[in-house]
Write a structure and sequence with these properties.
- This is Bifunctional inhibitor/plant lipid transfer protein/seed storage helical domain-containing protein.
- The protein is built from four helices and no strands.
Length: about 70
């Protein structure tokens, strides 16, 4: 389960719309299945989908399509 605290290393990348740091990427690896709960949420979808696309490319992680 992905906890919001695990995104702390990524806050600056999210807020400043800058590429994620290596620390951010390391904190995201292994939690790819959890991102669907954010991506499929009507509350977060609009905000998180573009961020996940950037993080996916930069951090070389795969975001499930379901």
């Amino acid at each position: 389960m992905l906890l919001l605290s695990q995104f702390m290393a990524c806050v600056s990348a999210i807020l400043e719309k800058t590429p994620p740091s290596s620390t951010c990427c390391a904190s995201l690896v292994g939690h790819e299945n959890c991102y669907c709960s954010f991506k499929n949420s009507p509350t977060f979808n609009h905000y998180i989908t573009p961020i996940l696309q950037i993080f996916s490319r930069t951090c070389n992680i795969q975001i499930p399509q379901y």
